[in-house]
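One record is kept unedited as follows:
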Amino acid sequence: MSRIDNTKIQDLLQAQRVQNPAVQPAKTGSSDFEGLLQDQLKVSGHAKTRLESRNIELDKSAWDRVVSGVDRAAAKGAKESLVMVDDVALVVSVKNRTVITAVDKGNLKDQVFTNIDSAVIV
C-alpha cells in the first residue's frame, strides 16, 4: 500500500505548473496514483496547507474511498459535501471535484462546517 507523502505536494505542484501553467491542483502520492487522483479529485492550495500543517496523511485506499464518496454525493445532486474518512473530515466541492479543506480528529472538536449540503461517511 502506497502512502501519500504530504511533504512532496509542493514539489509535485511545481512540476505540474511547469508542465501546464494553467493547471493548479495538487497531486499526491506515487506516480501511478498521482495521475489517477488528478483525474478524479483535485486538492486546493488551502486543503494542501491544512493537510501539511495538521500532518494528515491518507493512503491510496483512503483516497479511493474519498473519491467514491464524492461520486456518491454527485449522484445525489450534492454541491458541497463533508466527506468523513477514518478520523479525517474533508470538505469537497462536488461540482469542481476539489477538496477545499481538511480537518483531523484532533482538530474536530468545536468545529462547525458551513456551506455544505451533504455529508458522506466512507
